[in-house]
Design goal:
It is a single chain. The protein has helices at residues 28-42, 57-68, 94-103, 108-123, 131-146, and strands at 8-13, 49-55, 76-80, 88-93. By secondary structure, it is an alpha/beta fold. The chain has a 4-stranded mixed beta sheet. A hairpin with a 7-residue loop joins strand 3 and strand 4 (88-93). Helix 1 (28-42) packs across helix 5 and helix 4 (108-123) packs across helix 5. It is globular. The mean pLDDT is 92.
């Protein structure tokens, strides 16, 4: 009998990553690597299924409005379920990542990786609604991304 350590990943594309230049190296293996690092550092549950969904800004905003009552654009949403069949979802706005990366003169892949890590940390119980929790979130993001 084998036991899976760390999270499992289901990667879904509602927006094609190929529509965004610079995301060629962001594949399922890299995303799983980021999730595993977050799980190791912050004691995520073993064998948890996490779905990461690439989305366009339009669809992301529609879901932001429907589930969080806010139609404005946002970078990433995380929905923790804690269920055996689906621990949580991370919904990544690829259009916003491209826009933010362009404005900050950074590679888009790094921006998307940050969004994945940010969403994973939300699933693991991190918050960022005030200065103290936001600071803790930024520190945790850095630790995961440095690995």
């Amino acid at each position: 009998m084998t036991k899976e350590i760390g999270p499992r990943l289901r990667l879904t594309a509602r927006a094609q990553t190929s529509d965004h230049a610079g995301l060629e190296a962001l594949n399922e293996e890299r995303v799983l690597q980021l999730l595993q690092r977050a799980w190791q550092l912050f004691e995520g549950p073993d064998n948890a299924l996490v779905e990461v969904v690439w989305m366009s800004q339009q669809e992301h905003c529609e879901l932001h409005a429907r589930f969080l009552d806010d139609p404005s654009p946002t970078d990433v949403m995380a929905f923790p379920y804690g269920d055996e069949d689906l621990f949580g979802e991370i919904l990544v706005n690829l259009d916003m990542a491209a826009e933010q990366a362009n404005e900050r003169h950074l590679p888009i892949q790094g921006e998307v990786e940050l969004y994945v890590v940010h969403g994973a940390l939300h699933l693991l119980g991190f918050d960022d609604h005030d200065d103290d929790t936001r600071s803790a979130m930024r520190t945790a993001e850095s630790r995961v991304l440095q690995g």
